[in-house]
DNA sequence: CGACAACTTGAGACGCTTCAAAAAGGGTGG
DNA sequence: CCACCCTTTTTGAAGCGTCTCAAGTTGTCG
């Protein structure tokens, strides 16, 4: 792991703050070892405002392999907001964006079956990973997650994750091989994930 | 429901942006009606940056009873960041805080049993509700949630929620009556929730 | 070639879900 | 004040999805 001072981070629209050379995950654990991955971070992603980071060791970030990243202090964050409001605005936006990832995952974990959760995760990760790929992922995208990561991300047991993964693979929906993920029947995956059909207006719309 | 222009919102350290006269919830639904409440909003809470609000009706906010609130546009948000960086900073902080609520809930839904989830929710909601109470909730706190709300918040079925709730109540851990929540054996509830014991440092600490 | 991590598979147990239906509240109009 | 309706709560019973336990296989790296 390499730690790069903020002022040296070279990247993208918002170079100052974050990024990896590889994947990582935010997670929480219970005292008996049960572990829940909150969301995955891909190269180029923003590490959320980790204010609660130090509060307890309950909340962590784990690298799935070597990463390089930038960290910043709360004070520095405030200074930045004052000095460069537009970047501060971007940070707010990015924080909100990260939350939306967690929101999506909570919907999965709370209300989708194992098959549906896995289909959802594969599609979403593929999409994110394909963005930085040359041809949009025609020959798959890099996929460094172990089945244990997937299980912890979806609130499933390792065993059941494996069986479900194999079932979908045997049905020809996807393939994971050599550290790469291939979607072979995107339509079926999307159908399983119910990614479009979201709906139902709020009974009492507020906004 | 009353809609108050932002510049008139009277409240707290950060009067401009949010708040209710009552409770509400953020949720998502699947096309077949399955519903997951992401987090609950209590009086005084901030409504997150609802950028994705309009993206699809998949994401909603429901009032549990009449509420009054402030809304703001994305542009207004940007203008605010520029004009008042300190408030912009607070917004970032609040957005991150709301995310931490969702994180906590995701840990519950993904890795806690039904009993543990309910214990966790009761304690956390009680704490939040007690803050604004005169005596810190010695005679309970207002509790407008139905069991369906609790079920949707915890990723459980209504039936199982009811049975678990009754089991805990019969064991003397809590009481819900007349729209109020009373914690009767906080210690036992905390033990169930594993709220302190969080632990386990990251295998590969990043920060 | 030995060691360790990741993956795979089978089998039994249990927690939670679904279905079904009744009881208890809460509000409204006659 | 009662009759009615609709929402919320409660309880029983059966089914199944997921978990745990157990062990074997495959892959990787030194």
Q: What is the element layout, followed by pairings?
A:
The structure is a homodimer of 207-residue chains.
Chain A lengths: L1 E2 L20 E6 L5 E7 L17 E5 L4 E2 L4 H10 L1 H27 L2 H18 L9 E2 L4 H8 L3 H13 L3 E4 L2 E4 L2 H8 L14
Parallel strand pairs in A: 1-5
Antiparallel strand pairs in A: 2-3, 2-4, 6-8, 7-8
Helix pairs in contact in A: 1-2, 3-5, 3-6, 4-5
Chain A binds a DNA duplex (30 and 30 nucleotides) through helix 5.
Could you explain how this protein is built, in words?
The structure is a homodimer of 207-residue chains. Chain A is α+β, with helices and mostly antiparallel strands and 207 residues long. The first copy, chain A, folds into two domains: 2-108, Sandwich (Jelly Rolls); 113-193, Winged helix-like DNA-binding domain superfamily/Winged helix DNA-binding domain (Arc Repressor Mutant, subunit A), CATH 1.10.10. The first copy, chain A, has six helices and eight strands. Chain A has helices at 74-83, 85-111, 114-131, 147-154, 158-170, 186-193, and strands at residues 2-3, 24-29, 35-41, 59-63, 68-69, 141-142, 174-177, 180-183. Chain A has a three-stranded antiparallel β-sheet with strand order 3-2-4. The first copy, chain A, has a three-stranded antiparallel β-sheet with strand order 6-8-7. A two-stranded parallel sheet of chain A has the order 1-5. In chain A, strand 2 (24-29) and strand 3 form a beta hairpin. In chain A, helix 1 (74-83) crosses helix 2 (85-111). The longest helix of chain A has 27 residues, at 85-111. Chain A is globular and about 55 Å long. Residues 1-17, 51-58 and 197-207 of chain A have low confidence and may be disordered. The interface between A and B is large, with 73 and 74 residues. Chain A binds a DNA duplex (30 and 30 nucleotides) through helix 5.
């Amino acid at each position: 792991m390499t730690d790069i001072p903020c002022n040296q981070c070279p990247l993208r629209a918002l170079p100052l703050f974050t990024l990896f050379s590889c994947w990582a995950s935010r997670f929480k654990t219970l005292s008996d070892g049960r572990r829940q991955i909150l969301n995955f971070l891909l190269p180029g992603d923003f590490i959320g405002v980790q204010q609660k980071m130090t509060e307890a060791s309950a909340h962590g970030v784990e690298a799935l392999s070597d990463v390089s990243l930038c960290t910043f202090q709360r004070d520095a964050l405030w200074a930045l907001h004052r000095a460069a409001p537009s970047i501060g605005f971007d940070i707010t936006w990015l924080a909100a964006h990260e939350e939306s990832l967690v929101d999506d995952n909570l919907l999965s974990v709370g209300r989708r079956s194992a098959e549906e959760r896995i289909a959802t995760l594969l599609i979403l990760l593929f999409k994110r990973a394909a963005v930085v790929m040359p041809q949009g992922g025609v020959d798959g995208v890099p996929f460094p997650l172990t089945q244990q990561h997937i299980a912890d991300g979806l609130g499933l047991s390792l065993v059941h994750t494996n069986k479900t993964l194999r079932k979908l693979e045997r049905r020809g929906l996807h393939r994971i091989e050599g550290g790469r993920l291939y979607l072979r029947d995107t339509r079926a995956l999307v159908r399983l994930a119910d990614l479009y059909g979201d709906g139902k207006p709020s009974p009492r719309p507020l906004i």
